Amino acid sequence: MANQYVDLETLKFLLYKVHAVQEVLDQERYADYDEESIEMLLNSVKDFSDKELFPYFREMDENPAHFKDGEILVHPQVKKYIKAGAEMGFISGGFPYENGGMQLPAMASHASAFIQEAANNHLPGYIGLTIGAAELITHFANKELNETYVPKMLDGTWGGTMCLTEPQAGSSLSDIVTSANPDGNSYKIHGQKIFISAGDYKGAKNIIHLVLARVKGAPSGTKGISLFVVPKNRPNSNGNLTSNDVQTVTDFQKMGQRGYSTTHLFFGDKEECQGWLVGEENQGLKYMFLMMNSARIGVGRGAAAIASAAYQASLNYANERPQGRNLTSTGKKDANQEQTLIINHPDVRRMLLLQKVVTEGSQSLVFLSAKYYDLSISSAATDVREKYRLLLEIMTPVVKTYPSEMGKTAVDNGLQVLGGYGYCSDYILQQYLRDIRIFAIYEGTTGIQSQDLLGRKITMDNGKAWQLLSQEIMNSIRASMMLEPLTPYAQKLNAKLDLTQQVLRALMGFAKKGDYQRFLADATPFMEFFSNIIIGWLWLDMAREAQNALVNGSTENSTGFYESKIHAMEFYFKYELPKTTGLAEILMDNSRALTIGTDKKVFA
Amino acid sequence: MANQYVDLETLKFLLYKVHAVQEVLDQERYADYDEESIEMLLNSVKDFSDKELFPYFREMDENPAHFKDGEILVHPQVKKYIKAGAEMGFISGGFPYENGGMQLPAMASHASAFIQEAANNHLPGYIGLTIGAAELITHFANKELNETYVPKMLDGTWGGTMCLTEPQAGSSLSDIVTSANPDGNSYKIHGQKIFISAGDYKGAKNIIHLVLARVKGAPSGTKGISLFVVPKNRPNSNGNLTSNDVQTVTDFQKMGQRGYSTTHLFFGDKEECQGWLVGEENQGLKYMFLMMNSARIGVGRGAAAIASAAYQASLNYANERPQGRNLTSTGKKDANQEQTLIINHPDVRRMLLLQKVVTEGSQSLVFLSAKYYDLSISSAATDVREKYRLLLEIMTPVVKTYPSEMGKTAVDNGLQVLGGYGYCSDYILQQYLRDIRIFAIYEGTTGIQSQDLLGRKITMDNGKAWQLLSQEIMNSIRASMMLEPLTPYAQKLNAKLDLTQQVLRALMGFAKKGDYQRFLADATPFMEFFSNIIIGWLWLDMAREAQNALVNGSTENSTGFYESKIHAMEFYFKYELPKTTGLAEILMDNSRALTIGTDKKVFA
User: Residues B150-166: pLDDT tens digits?
Assistant: First the structure.
């Protein structure tokens, strides 16, 4: 099947069985939903994606969004998608009823977005940013801002963006210089923002920018950043729009995601740009980061979706392409035999299985994180909500990073499955490879996520988040120990949990001595180590669910389906998990190759 | 410097010092050369590359070679480069005097090509293929074919190609069906070839294709393949050219190397295509593979060159871009401090150092392989030539693969150094990333190289090649043990050599039991393991040379230069070599996840 970009059976297995969405649906907040309504939603999203997303995937790459005469020209499907997507509830879905939303659990919203992004990752961002901007308003802005902007954002009439980055600051938000000067009940905004996704496009009725800026006299650094609503056009009381001096000066042409516009905006070039404060002054970065967990799950989800689509494309090719022969027991090949399908070559299987374990492991991670989110806002008891909040905090940098980093590797393997064809524009693998490369940069690079994980999340609340997470992993290990074929794998994972403690003790030693630079210098290899073990855990859970289904004679999925999950877990434990042995060696080596002083030349 | 694409100081250090090109120049064959003449050559190649290669690098990507109206349109610089390059001796350089060549050592030819490819990897292939085709003729074809074709190929008047791949066969050459029917003193050729690099371009006077085809009645499989000279135009005795029924039917548009044309050719569509047999019938694949060592060193060299250029670009950026601040001893940052250059962030250093160790390690591997080649053809004693032939054989799959595979990772890290800019078309890193992706596919994929290494080279002549190579590594270890600061690293490498023997014993067990599929199933992880250790060896050699220079107070390079080599070795031994611990665990795991039978579903 040429439009086989997602494995819905696995997606549903993860959602309903492995991560038991029912536990979320049991919460009062989601009382209006059951598995059946989720199932209907997902099936309609798949139909919609088949028709409105996947068919435009290649042509959006070939005809990229681009700046011309002061405007960004985009593929005509952008407007159609936003309109139809809004009607399907893709924008309002996750918002509470009181904001005009559908109060869908995040698990369902992420599953819906995953299918869409697997079909065409150039489109969903146009409404994803609107969701993020509207969330900031609903959570932190006053009633007037809510009434003025949110309804038109949720119904798709107006778009939204997040404006953080500036040319001189990059990832260093403390160096933002965009200014906001009080002017009556609003502020005059002046400055420029770069890398603004979906920042503008021709024919957009209005775009509502959520802008980080600095009020005159504010403290330096991140403590002096405020958040503003800055519309491209100001709505008057009669509903008319007036230009608000927000100018698109150019765009960024990229190696991938070329249908998704990335813009460079000027605010207040004519000193006529008005912004409205969200919440209180100097709290802007806090607001932004309170919303960041969802955005970062979204990035990991997008990468997982691309990796998933690439896996399906490689698998289809390998199932149809005959080439070469298997070795016989003499170590030779028999040229008189028919050619075999390439899926029968061990090296091709290795590449496909790597794609499979990364792709499905990433999906599992996304749904688990979404579940933590749902339970952190919907559980009845305060302490339960707090538990899931902490689990969400520690999982956020991992769910952002693992699918983005290992997803690249998975797609790279997928391209290799096709040999020379994989490198050619006529085949889709090269587009997936170009598209996925941005995800390790979006919303905080891998380096920044890794420092967040090791420097903040592992240590937060005296290590409480990590303690809770290890308990979750231990629960899985115990449950798997009792299922005979899984015992050796449970033991392996248990050993890796011990190894993690050893590694953390070694690294914490540096922090305790006040050597923070050294403590965090290996944050990225630590992320690789840590996330590899997390995915091992998630595969053990998947295999346990499958093993139980086999033992119980479940017929919801085929025997082959369950066997393939157990086999993929075995593959992961043979080919991926042992990499942590080498990584632990790296992390526990006490030399300081990265933080060397200026006494010796490093880059001569 | 914006055109800093190659580190000539390191290149010369590797060539003259670490790999002592003088040992090659001491051979009778190269009596006309000394270090001074090599030095002059390299400097002139750098000047030429600055003017004729680097300035066209970006525009060749933006205006790709493409098929139109039966022809391939290429950038005008292609013809200029071929003409000027031929005049500089880039085509004839490596050929013996008797063929009208300059009898340059391969070490010098590869160094020259490395500089050119670092400047612009879209151009050198146009003459690289001509060299390969002419080599096949000079080595295996009769006097008439030599006289008719070689002079005009070496002076750049005519191009050349290698035509192996066919649509139904891919990497499986035994399935080639292009036919050759005896017809007087030539053969009628009929068939099609795909992925033919530099296969045609508008305005090419003539292109000489070296074509693998099957003579009617030949044995099936690779034993029935013959090699033919098939010119695009037949030269008559009066020097005129007549069309030889070789038709360019289309091209392949690629994700990278877009200035370098990749064509689809039809031979004999009108039954008027003549080919001339090279050597004897049914020996074609043998001839092709006798020339393959050079071609594969060339692929590794190209990847190393791209990785080198990307490293220079990332390093320049990191040395100029201020962003963020270093952590203070309280674990916080002081926002009132000036921003620091990003090269001072440990995570950025990690990425740059990874680029550096992969890039320079790859260069070292290329020069070492070229040295083995030179000594295998020029050493006075037969047994010495045989020793180097075996070392070249075992090194060939490694030099093809390591720079291609780890080069991708290095360039990927280089893109990440630039953050969002790295993903944008205005910056060059994304082009390097797209360009380098093909090298793991060219001239035998990584999977095929890995099976060559484990299945053929390690075991050849009862393990003689591997025995010789381990002796070379042991000699290095012994020499480094005696230099005090290097002792711990020499010990580490020694342990890795022991580990390699353990891994090989475990894998050989499967071969001895006749389980060849299982024996070779993990060939690719074995390649990763093995090449990682080889590069560790080469870094130890580089550090020893630097340490000796420091001890001896050498002033040929600065103290900082020598220190940076030792530091890079330490980085490699901390961050790269330990990965082999995890890989060994993978390789010695005796489960068979890849070669599982059909009794259980793998890809459900």
Answer: 999 999 999 999 999 99
What is the rounded distance in angstroms from the CA atom of residue B604 to the CA atom of residue A13? 13
- Helix, strand, coil content of chain A in percent (nearest 5): 60, 10, 30
B602 assigned to some structural domain: no
Residues A18 and A112 in one domain: yes
Q: What is the CATH number of the domain that holds B92?
A: 1.10.540.10
Task: Compute and round to an integer the Cα radius of gyration of chain A.
Answer: 25
Tell me if chain A has a CB within 8 Å of the CB of B595. yes
| Helix (H) / strand (E) containing B84 | helix B77-87
Using pLDDT thresholds of 50, 70 and 90, give the confidence band for residue B600.
Answer: low
Are B388 and B533 found together in one domain? yes
User: CATH number for the domain including A270?
Assistant: 2.40.110.20
Q: Is the pLDDT of residue B188 over 70?
A: yes
Chain A positions touching B335 (Cβ under 8 A) are 174, 220-222
Query: Coil, helix or strand for A557?
Result: coil
The answer on B277 and B347 residing in a single domain is: no
Shortest alpha-carbon distance between residue B355 and chain A (Å): 11
Q: Residue B358: which domain range?
A: 291-322+340-588
Asked if B424 lies within 8 A of A585 by C-beta distance, the reply is: no
Best to test chain B binding among A7, A563, A601 (most B CBs inside 10 Å): A601
Q: Which residues of B touch A412 (CB under 8 A)?
A: 408, 437
Is position B598 within any domain?
no
- pLDDT surpasses 80 at B335: no
CATH of the domain at A400: 1.20.140.10
Domain boundary among A153, A173, A197: A153
Task: Nearest chain A residue to B7 by CA: give it.
Answer: A604
Residue B212, Cβ density class (10 Å: 0-12 exposed, 13-18 middle, ≥19 buried): buried
Neighbours of B597 (CB within 10 A): 7
Mean pLDDT score of chain B:
95
ipTM of the complex: 0.96
Q: Cα A119 to chain center, whole Å?
A: 16
Segment B391-414 shows an average pLDDT of 98
Q: CB A434 to CB B255 under 8 A?
A: yes
Kindly state whether A560 is in contact with chain B, defined as any CB-CB distance less than 8 angstroms. Answer: yes
Residues A245, A393 within the same domain: no
When CB atoms are compared, the residue of A353, A575, A600 closest to B586 is A575
